[in-house]
Amino acid sequence: MKHFKITILFIIISQLVSAQIVFNRIIEDTVMHITNSVIATDTGYVLLTGTNNEELIRCYAFTFVDLNGNKVWKKTYSDSQYQFWEGWNGNLKNFNNNYYLAGGIVNINSGDIGININNFNNSFDVIDQNTIFYNSQEKRVFYSLRSIDSAYYLTGQIYNTLEDKYRLIFLKADRNSNYLWHKTLGNNAYEYGSCLIETEDKKIITAGASCFENSSNTRWYLINTDTAGNIIWERYYGRENLDNSYVKALIKTQDSSILLSGSYTAAKYGSGEEEIVWDGCLRRISQNGELLWEKLYRNYYCYPDGTGITLKSSITSLHELQNNDFIFIVSSYWYYSIHRGFMTKTDSEGNIKWHRYYYAVSDASRWQYFSSFQPTCDKGFIIAGYGNDYSNIGYDPPQQAWLVKTDSLGMDGLCNIEHDELNIDIEIPEIPDGICMNDTLDVYIYISGKSAPYTIEFSTGQIIDSIY
Known about the structure:
Layout: E1 4-11, E2 23-27, E3 34-40, E4 44-52, E5 58-66, E6 71-77, E7 82-85, E8 93-95, E9 98-107, E10 113-120, E11 126-135, E12 139-146, E13 152-160, E14 165-173, E15 179-185, E16 190-198, E17 204-211, E18 218-225, E19 231-237, E20 249-252, E21 258-268, E22 276-285, E23 291-297, E24 301-302, E25 309-310, E26 313-320, E27 326-335, E28 338-346, E29 352-358, E30 368-375, E31 381-387, E32 400-406, E33 421-428, E34 454-458, E35 463-467
Antiparallel strand pairs: 1-33, 1-34, 2-32, 3-4, 4-5, 5-6, 7-9, 8-9, 9-10, 10-11, 12-13, 13-14, 14-15, 16-17, 17-18, 18-19, 20-21, 21-22, 22-23, 24-25, 26-27, 27-28, 28-29, 30-31, 31-32, 34-35
């Protein structure tokens, strides 16, 4: 009986990243910060954060960090008579080499509420600022978009006094940030908007959430309108009679479809009335709102005492790369009840290529969340987030901004240093009868749980690389 030994070596080959700077830093300050957005510039990165001024009045700030992760300056935008609110994740954007932000303004004395539209130059000094729709009506702006014709579209939530319900607000201002009109959209218990995109045919898609009866029956809500705010179609996505949360990211893909991300209600503990647990969720739809596919991403985490497991993931921001791959960031448990940041790369169908997790300073850091990220010019990624409880690693106040710069494979030099390597020796003790020494024998190997791409190196010298 002949014996063959077939050795196959699986190695992840690192790309040339000598020019890719990586770091993982807490951006320390004397006041607390909740990170909203990150912008990559030629000389570094700008963080938009919600914070307080010296009088402890709610405001927002820009912080500039150089290419090596060092804090250079901070500019706070505040007023002694008004609160300033910066909106939700990713609300700071680039337009014609400048930057814009639309958020809320609240008069501390009268309680009146308005919408602030701000434009900034490359130094993040204010070019112009305009307050619109300022009155006593309760409203909040979560997200903004500047269209091809330079108009502003905004979404969030508004209280409809006639219906005595909270509705999704959809507002338009002209290129000079002057108010044109607003719509209150939705027909269920309450709605709100969280994301906006403009399609190639100049339609506006607003995404958010709609609650059908109560907070345990919420689904993703999408509305397609023309530029006058007339509804073309509206769609709901998610499991019925469960809390599906809201759309946290929304992008156009290169094949003219639409990709949404957020959470998927996986289960409830106990009798169904206790804690809700979520998978991360991607949904791809056509321009008519038809669901093309849905992909779920799950991470299991053990309780410290070993009594059980839990899961809780939500995809908070996503991008499509030039080769049609997707990159997204996730906030999730690492082990209960400590949160970690994750970044995942998939192919165009949502199949995972690699998955990395991140913490700040040390594995002892906890309660950390990713908010926003962007590809960088060196083919890496800049990820912004914050931690709520950095006091256990020596920071005061405990809530601080957190910034992670990775290379093209998600390596940050702290949590992810060496690429995964898997070595397998396959010995076949029994060769089927009739096989001669020079015959070909097919061997099938199935591998899961490691990060692609793989390189297969045979003992005969053959090499096959870029396998996912």
